[in-house]
Every structure is written in structure tokens, then in C-alpha cells.
Amino acid sequence: MADLISPDSIRGTPLKDALGERYLAYALSTIISRSLPDVRDGLKPVHRRLLYAMRELKLDPSGGFKKCARVVGDVIGKYHPHGELSVYEALVRLAQDFAQRYPLVDGQGNFGNVDGDSAAAMRYTEARMTAVADLLLRDIDKDTVDFRPNYDGEDREPVVLPAAFPNLLANGSAGIAVGMATSIPPHNIVEICDALQHLIKSPNAAIETLVKLMPGPDFPTGGILVEPRESILEAYATGRGSFRLRSRWTKEDLGRGTWQIVVTEIPYQVQKSKLIERIADLLGEKKLPLLADIRDESAEDIRLVLEPKSRTVEAEHLMESLFRQTDLETRFSLNMNVLEGGRVPRVMNLKAVLKAYLDHRRDVLVRRSNFRLAEIDRRLEVLGGYLIAYLNLDEVIRIIRAEDEPKPVLIKSFDLTDNQAEAILNMRLRSLRKLEEMEIRKEHAGLTAEKKGLKALLASEEAQWSAISGEVSELKKTFGPKTILGRRRTGFADMPDLPDIPLDAGIEREPVTVVLSEKGWVRTLKGHPQDDGKATYKEGDRGRFWIPCETTDKLMLFGTDGRFYTLPVDKLPGGRGHGEPVRLMIDLGNDRDIVALFPHRAGRKLLVAATDGRGFVVPEEEAVASTRSGKQVLNVSGDVEACICTPAEGDHVASIGENRKLLIFPLTEVPEMSRGRGVILQKFKDGVLADAKVFSLSAGLTWTTADGRERTESDIRDWIGERAQAGRMLPKGFNKSGRFS
User: What is the set of domains in the chain, with CATH numbers?
Assistant: First the structure.
């Protein structure tokens, strides 16, 4: 083999250039010959070849069906030399009414379903074209489009279809090429026709006007578009964007306060079986607290039944939680990257796509008219010869009978063309009757009038656009809004203005009491019983916190590490036994203690402080933790520990040190923060902060005496000062513990 290669035939090329050249050729082939649709007919080559092959097989909408294997065989044998499976999958998709807004193939047999089940093998299924496909191919034999040789040069195939149907926008398209992709949703044909007619009348129409006529996609599976109008307008103006699509659902009343949700439409290209599987997985993982169960009651129509956890759940909240976590809500991207003129990929906006289609239809109209003119000229030429023959019938008969070569004699005698002479010689004797002559004269007059009309059409751009507008009107009439195909399926709605979904939306609201012992064992008791000292604890343990609340509450736990921890009350163990260690539910170290435990109340503020006398006010919402590791609010280090957490309800702060000194100062002197060390509340020479509270000065300062009674002191002027002072000794009669309670 080496001897056959001449050294002169070897050309040195840098590897980078060689790879770039070959990769570019591959990329162009993928873009043009496989992945991107033509803006004129909205088809990729495989789809175009499928429809043309079906036409050649005479699979008209009114005709019979043929096996899909026969169609696929013709396609891969004559036009598309690729794998039969990929060609069959393309054919199947053209027949699926849940994938195509206006199916191009009428399938007979199992062509798959919305659950994601595959179609039957091609040897079992049959197909023919639909009326929409017939419109795409209409007048293809009238020189309306160019043809090119197929891959082996033995046949010819169309470069583009005449497309009397705006398929690109009506059915949409999706594909991934090398370095680019396309994603175009389907639209309603009636709205497309309205936009086309408006653009014919007003070529300089604004995008805003066209979007009013074409307000958004119309998916074959229905659903609800909840994208803002501004976003839709921007997407169509730039050719890039996305649309938020939600399932359609209703609330069914089952009586006695019970209800269920029924989903009747799911987003486009979502497989129902995978959607149900995903919801079931989330239920198993307990990530859908508002949902109890899901059932598939679908037959021919979709019917997914969703059962709420309880009757107190709001249907809107349940659906919002599902929309956020499942494919009951999806986003469909818009990227109108198409082939302009069949060769140049370009991202077009809505107006450019509509204009390209209209220009194509005008080109088809002109070519069809010229083709018809040529046909009329040929026919008029023949009819003219017939009329000459009728006027000179006896002489024509004599020449035919007497001459060995009558054709040249006829041409010379009556100044005929070759075609006229040939037509006269091929006339049948029965055509010589008088009635036939009258028919020929009538046909001649009709063709002459038609020729005049065609010439007028070709000479007037206005007449051409008027003719195209008439075609669009006829198309709109065929697929009107009252027809099954023409009726809009996808609705529009604004995003619901709902507050955040409450975490307690699926929880029965019941009164309970949370009991936390000294050693950190927590449990709940039903109702709000009084702490009469009869509650039992583990040996050597005793009660510490007795918190009346409800199952829908969240408990806030503040530790000496300065962290807040959040515990849902409904997740706490019940009253049987001694409960469970709270440290198994949160990451509170064994060397840390619990400072405070209380139910969360939105809008409240808390005063937090450490033993070194530093503290600040924190909004309670800022302290809610979302993980078991808690949320650091008060920064402490070394021997300093958090020791105070009390509601900041009042206008003054009272703080006590272990040195039994009391200081009262305005709450306004304490800053509001979300995290930090805070400021000095009270200074100490010896000891640390023992207690603090916030109160209203007008109501007086209250504390608990040694015998358990409450005492209120109004004359506290001697202890009022400024923040960070040392304070004065406690008033007489204050309890020996040196704390307010």
C-alpha cells in the first residue's frame, strides 16, 4: 500500500488546522442537516423526508394506511441514510397528539402515551398523513420549491416544503446542534393567522401588537401559563426567554368538610408516570407535609387525585408546595434559533419568524403562478392548433390522408408550431364533432382570462399579499377556534400572591404542654394542665420548664453557647414515659446548658445577654434556626456564657449582678442586632450578670419574693441611670437569690 502513495500527494498540515477544518465541517453538517429547523417550513431534514416519502407512497389523509416499516424503509433507502430507529422515533413523535399540537402523521396502533411508554415496533404500526401534513406538501409538484439530488444521486428530494401551514410556530421545535440549540414552543394556529394577517396589512407592526394577537404558547397538553406579560413580551422581542407552565387543577368537595385535589392537565413533555413516582418519593422522604397520598385515576384523560393531610390544609398552599418541588410546574425555554434560507443559523424574534414565513409563501405564490402560466401557454398553444384544424377541417383531413409525412405539410400550410401539429395528428375522430369545438373555444376563453389574471397578480405586489392573506383566512377558517384542533388549550393566569406556606399548614392544631426536665428530657402532655407537682421524672431528675402551647407552634431553645435552636412541637415525643433527651434532637453540647425555652411568636423581640454583662436586642424572626445545629446569635468565648433571654416588652431594662447591684436604664440605649457580642449593660468589679428583664417604667418593677408572692415597686428612681453603670444595691425586701423570679 505504501508503494501506491506518491510522496507528492502527501500534504503537511498543522494538527490544529486539520482538526479545526474537520470539526467545522462536522458542526455545519449537524446544524444544517440534522438539528435546526428551517424557518420556512419548521421542519428538520428527517421530518421533511418522512413527509415527502409518505406522499410518494400516496398516503393521503383520505387514503389507506401503510406499515410504518415500509415508510421508514423508503426514507432510509432513498433520502435519509441513518439508523432506522431514529427515523421511526421521529415518525412516532409526529403522530403523538400529546407531543405535537397539530400532528402531521395519523397513526394506527400503539404510538406511546403520556406516561412515557414507548411505541410498538414499526412492523406493528401503520401511518398516513394528516390534513396538516397535506397542507405542508400542497403544490409541491408545481415548481414551488427547489429540489436537489438525494445522497446517492438516484432520486431527488425537496430542499424545503411549500408549507401552506405555519408549522414552525404552530408545532414548535427542539434540537441540540454543535455549539447551539433551538427550543420553540407550539402556538395556536388561529392566533398565528391573526398575527400574519396583521403583519401583511402593517409590515412595520410593533412586537407588542403581534404579542397581543399571539399572547403566548399553546401546548398540546394544556396547562396554565403564569409568566408575567412583560417577560413574555421580552422573550418574543429577543427570541430568547422562558415560560412558566403549571398544571391545571380543581378542588373537589367530598362532603362533611373533606375535599381532594384533581389534576387534569400536566405540563408539556412531563411524563405522568415519572411525575407520580417523584411525588411518591417525596412523600416517603416526608418532604411534603401537607400531602397524605396520590392516586392515578387516569383513563383517556388525565386525572391525578391528591389527598391532603388534613381538612385544615389550604388547597392553594398544598399546590404551591407541589409546584415548588415537582414537575407539576416547569419552565419551557424559548430559543428561536433557526436556519434562515436553509443555510444560515440565526436567532430570530417573533416578527422576523412571521416575516420569513410570509416571504416564503410569497415566493411559493410567484413560482406557482409562473408554473401555471407556462401550463396555460402550452395548453393555449394546443387549443389554438385545434381551432385552426376545425376551421380547415377538410384540408387537414386531406393532408393527413394524402401525405406520407403530414406533419411538416401541416406546419407549412397553416403556420403551426411543432406542438400544434403533433396535437392535431393525435386527435381522435370523436373530437371532430361540433360540440367538442364549442368546448375547446370555451376552455380557450377561460384559460385566456386566467392568464390575464395571473399576469396581473405577478405584476402587483399588493395583489400578491392580498392572495396570501386570503390563503391565511382560509386556513383560519379550517382550524377555527370552535374546532377541536383550533380551540386554545393552554390558559393564562397571574402568579398567586400567597404568603409563604406555613410550616404548620398540615398539622392539626391541638393544645399541649411541653415539659422539659433539669437533665434535658422533653415530652408533651395533652391539654394545658397545671403543674401540680404530680408529674413524674426519671430518678434524680425534676421539672424545669412547663410550657403551654399548641401542636402548630415552634419552640425556641436558647443555650449557654449563645445559639438558638428551633423544635417543632408536633415532632416532640408524647406524654407516655419520660420523653426523650432534647440533645438527641439538637446539637447542644453536653457541656452546655439551656437558658430559656418558649414558643415562637412572630414580631416579638428578645433581650439576650451574657455573663460578662454584654447584650443586645434581637428580632425573634432572626433567631429562628432551620437546622439542628442551631443559629449563632450571641457570640461568647472562654468562660463567658449566655445567661439571659427575655422578651423585650417594655421601655426600660433592669439588670442585676451577682454582687446584688441593680441598674435600670432605657431600652433605647440597647442596640438591635441580629448577631454579635452586644454592648455593656452593667459593669461589675466582682462577679457577673445574674439576671435581667424588660419592663414598663409606668407599671413599676416586679419581682418574686422568697415566699412566692409577686411584689411591685414603683419608687425606683434611685436605681435609674445610664447603660454600663455599676448600679446600686438591691432594694430592701428583694429575695435572697438576687433574681427577679
Answer: 43-162 (3.90.199.10), 248-327 (3.30.1360.40), 356-478 (1.10.268.10), 511-729 (2.120.10.90)
